[in-house]
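Objective 1.3, modelling of assemblies. Example input:
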Amino acid sequence: MSEAANIQKDQEFLTFTLGEENYALDILTVKEIRGYESVTKIANAPPFIKGVINLRGDIVPIVDLRIKFSVGTATYDEFTIVIVLHIHNRIVGIVVDGVSDVVSLNKDQLRPPPDFGVAFDSRYLLGLATINEQMIIMVDINELISSEEMGLFNTEQHQVV
Amino acid sequence: MSIDMKQFHSVFFDESQEHLDEMEHLLLDLDTQNPDPEQLNTIFRAAHSVKGGSGIFGFDALGSVTHIMESLLDNVRQGKLAIDPQMVDLFLSSVDVLKGILESYKSGSEIDWPSANRICERLEAITHPKSTPVEHESEIEGFGLFTESSPIEVEDGFGFFGDPVLPSTQETYGFFADESSTAAATNVQNSPESAAPANASLTTNIPSPEVVTASAPVKNAPSAAPTKSKPADVVSENSSIRVDVTKVDQLINLVGEIVITQSMLNLIGQSIDGALGEKFQSVAAELERNTREIQEAVMSIRMLPVSFVFNRFPRVVRDLSTKLGKSIDLIIEGGDTELDKGLTEKLVDPLTHLVRNSIDHGIESTEVRVERNKNPTGTVVLKAAQQGGSIVISISDDGGGLSRKKILAKAHEKNIAVGENPSDAEVWQLIFAPGFSTADQITDVSGRGVGLDVVKRNVQSLGGRIDIESVEGVGATFTIRLPLTLAIVDGMCVSVGDQTFIIPLVNIVESMQPLQKDIKTLVGDDQLLLVRDQYWPILPLYKAMQLEPDFKEAHKGIAVLIEANKHRFALFVDALVGQQQVVIKSLEQHYRRIQGVAGATIMGDGSVALILDVESLAVTVNPHTLQQAS
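Predicted structure (tokens):
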């Protein structure tokens, strides 16, 4: 939760939905948002890693957060969204049910995350915020994506980063 | 200093390396009887540029050696001093020392001051013949090219200087003005036998003599190097620019994308009807032509003429033939064949090894050649050519050729399994086995049997292969076949379910639709395929890649017979899609290594296909099945 301390001024977040819940992540990590397209499957990968796609010449892994955190149903149609993130010099796509808005938040609006009740481990949360009477779960996306649990990065490489 | 000079270092290193290479090349070409003034000028300019640059960056070791070389060369080109073969040899040794120093600066390692100082003294000895005795010619070849591996260097590279050399000429140049410098102007006093660079003990001759060891850091080594030197030559004779390789790679990537977008555009164009559609298609065709041209142009940026590698061999041959007392002509053909830069760099070691091999083992000694009614001067031909999508480099010699009998005897001695009545090609491949050497006598050049296996591995790691042709008594030819670039692999596209995979063509022996009767099932579902009296273990790709295939029964799909380094197996896939060249992309850049996959590529329709790594797939084959198969 190192980042929570850094939130001094207003910071912009991209909000997205997984199932019924609203989440938000730091917009500066977002490279682009695109529709879901068919992926190339990868052997021996956990089920939440859907496979890899070609993003303008880069081979990019696609993670379905709905499968990873067992929220919502993992269906793929023309409305399924992939948020392409740029984290630690790597590119990763995450599948979500939809993106909704960009919101500005400052530190005062953040509440500490609960210890239970959300799908994400509190290690990967910055906190909770309420906007327009809706609860938004703030995800520490850097921490989540580079976590060992996701298995996206080779651990030794992660240490170098 | 307000400007961070470090940013210019790498450019300086590259340029100096080129200057030194050029110097070496020209020195080898130089006709000492009748030197070409233009060549002398160029050698002088190269020395001057290196000196200028090293002065600016404070690389004193480089500066001091090049300065003396420069003054000598200046005298030579002005006709004040006649150049002779000994001098050329000395200059060549100087170039070697300079290369060593440059490498040390580059890697930030310890500068070999003793050899730098020695070479300075020897150069000065020529400038002022009365002050020191000139060394014997035979000692000169010591500073071998083969810095890492060769025993030559250790054996006679050091310890020439049995006699203390009077450094009386130092004031003339005044490099070593720094009084505190203990290492400046040194004499090596140890005996030739114990000489090794690390423990060579040195004594100074400056006021208070004290002993330092060369391995101790020489901090205040000559710092009064040519401060008055002019800035590096602004005059550049070639019109090339230096570009970061990553920028070029980025360009290649982007162009690849344009090609894919272009083909998608074509697809859309075909679905437009009427006059507009026709117009669109003609424009799209135009665009296609242009993009292809851009792609070729961009790919060619990475290409370098193979002469960049070949140019070092005249020196190798010269040094070795002198050392071995053989008379050898080197003929280089096709030096302007272009090759990917990454490949050229990695070719140096294997080629050097093969050339040395040809000279040491291939070419017979002059007496034997005369006895066999051959031209007493042996010939080694180094040839490069492009054949389709690959580059073929061959090293031929007109020596004794490989001896079938000797190799087979050696194989027997080393307990290497050999089939009944092996073909010549099979016998020749035996020499690539680790620890294999048929040389009667171990020389320091080769014969220890370490190496040819490494050569083969190096070539294979570049995606190439190596073949031998040999006729006993007439000569041998080693042929290396390489893909045009490292980034492209010739592959066979195969499909399993809805996924496409690429198998590198070099690993494929053949593909076939197996007959039911040729498939034998073992305990535990493992299967063997009988092909021409040999059993191949079957590896279903759908199992390895955890996919849902179209066919699970081996006889309905296709078996691709694959030969990996150690294993052979039959890869069972649904269908063959076709053969094509694919661009290798890294999976690890954004994801991680996957067992059985070497990389990925982007197909014409923009989708991703995985390139199989047959070596690691082979490991997944049940060892028990492998045993059964053999």
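The longest strand of chain B covers residues 378-387.
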